[in-house]
């Protein structure tokens, strides 16, 4: 028996933020970051709460790749304030931190109270990047900054109740971040489509996401005010999230997590650099070649050469080039001696990463090292 669930209610398209007007919460906590304050996005939300006279408290200390320390601080905030709703406004980092806060808050309460007395605040995720799909997944990634390790958490408790995708909220994302987060979507969709846990529901969402990214990422990169493309990218991000929440990911993410933890590079950018090399590696497998062929035809891409791996590789590489994404970690600027010094430790991390377990092709330490080297040297 298999299981598939789509949980959050999703409000999307222009003015989706108006959905906030329909709630009558007594007290709200807002988890966010300084970027949301600076770009005026937090004000769009608080204006709405002010208008309704809803009491709110802001926790805006969340940093990129949220640390265990910031989650601890946020946990104290929510324990003290006891809100009936938690709204996460921000990119994947903010949403993941809010998820971890909810996770520890509920599990903390469960130590002292029976389940009937443990109330979970209504959890609303408002993503301000189109990338992680975190608004529809039960995963969160937090970082132990002392050990440079990313810690994955998985629990249905962390699944938001509501996701609000308003394209106006992603208008201010700088082009470089639009490119990186958009390639994160592409990576989620491709990895979910071929993962060992792929299934008809996940494939359907993943395929549509790939089609939308090929169509909308470049326009949304070159014109930040193209709200139609921005909205398509939000939908693609959400669909790819639904797909990988059910099917899991693969070693692009395992390697990107290790690169991200060691070199503090944006998650989407690390994925974008690694993805073509993993397509080549997995695409040597005959079953994966058939899956790539289905993915291409489902996305309206003709596979003229008959070599689905080469076709997908070339399409992804030319999209990356059009977004000015570096072709390798070396071109990105990581010195070779730093890479070689960290390589064994990163290999350990990638081999032990949960995403490695669902990669469609079994990975040895040697093959992981080969792909990692390709992503570093760009060959
Ligand atoms: N939970 C999941 O399923 C999942 C999946 C993939 C990635 N992740 C995690 O998500 C994190 C990455 O998230 P991200 O790529 O969304 O970036 P992010 O949340 O780290 O944000 C990056 C920067 O962009 C700024 N920003 C965000 N929205 C903006 C906007 N509209 N305008 C201007 N600036 C804006 C932020 O303030 C921040 O400085 C990583 O920690 C990664 O591990 C989680
Ligand atoms: Fe990702």
UniProtKB/TrEMBL annotation:
PANTHER family from the UniProt entry: ALCOHOL DEHYDROGENASE, ALCOHOL DEHYDROGENASE 4
Transmembrane segment boundaries: none
Keyword annotations from UniProtKB, A to Z: NAD, Oxidoreductase
GO molecular function, one term: alcohol dehydrogenase (NAD+) activity
Source species, domain of life: Bacteria
Stated family: Belongs to the iron-containing alcohol dehydrogenase family.
Organism: Acetobacterium bakii
Record domain Fe-containing alcohol dehydrogenase-like C-terminal: where: 178-376
One Pfam short name: Fe-ADH
Segments forming domain Alcohol dehydrogenase iron-type/glycerol dehydrogenase GldA: 9-167
Protein name, UniProt field: Butanol dehydrogenase
């Amino acid at each position: 028996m298999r299981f598939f669930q789509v949980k959050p209610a999703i409000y999307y398209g222009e003015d989706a933020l108006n959905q906030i007007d329909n709630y009558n919460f007594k007290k709200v906590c807002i988890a966010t970051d300084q970027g949301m304050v600076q770009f005026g996005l937090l004000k769009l939300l608080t204006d709405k709460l002010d208008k309704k006279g809803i009491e709110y408290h802001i926790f805006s200390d969340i940093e990129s790749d949220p640390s265990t320390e910031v989650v601890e601080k946020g946990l104290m905030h929510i324990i003290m304030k006891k809100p009936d709703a938690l709204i996460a406004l921000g990119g994947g980092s903010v949403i993941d931190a809010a998820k971890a806060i909810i996770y520890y808050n509920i599990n903390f309460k469960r130590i002292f109270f029976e389940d009937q007395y443990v109330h979970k605040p209504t959890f609303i995720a408002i993503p301000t990047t189109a990338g992680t799909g975190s608004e529809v997944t039960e995963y969160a990634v937090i970082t132990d900054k002392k050990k440079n390790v990313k810690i994955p958490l998985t629990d249905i408790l962390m699944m938001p109740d509501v996701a609000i995708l308003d394209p106006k909220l992603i208008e201010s994302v700088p082009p470089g971040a639009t490119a990186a987060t958009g390639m994160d979507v592409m990576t989620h969709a491709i990895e979910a489509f071929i993962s060992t846990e792929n299934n008809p529901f996940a494939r359907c969402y993943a395929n549509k996401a790939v089609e939308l990214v090929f169509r909308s990422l470049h326009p949304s990169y070159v014109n930040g005010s193209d709200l139609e493309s921005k909205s398509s990218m939000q939908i693609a991000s959400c669909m790819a999230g639904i797909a990988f929440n059910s099917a899991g990911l693969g070693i692009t993410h395992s390697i990107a997590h290790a690169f991200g933890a060691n070199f503090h590079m944006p998650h989407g950018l690390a994925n974008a650099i690694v993805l073509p090399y993993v397509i080549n590696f997995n695409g040597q497998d005959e079953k994966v070649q058939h899956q790539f062929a289905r993915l291409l035809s489902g996305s309206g891409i003709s596979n003229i050469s008959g070599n689905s791996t080469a076709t997908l590789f070339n399409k992804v590489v030319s999209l990356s080039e059009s977004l000015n994404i570096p072709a390798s970690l070396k071109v990105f600027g990581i010195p070779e001696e730093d890479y070689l010094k960290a390589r064994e430790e990163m290999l350990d991390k990638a081999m032990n990463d949960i995403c490695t377990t669902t990669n469609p092709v079994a990975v040895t330490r040697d093959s992981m090292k080969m792909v990692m080297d390709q992503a570093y040297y760009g060959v």
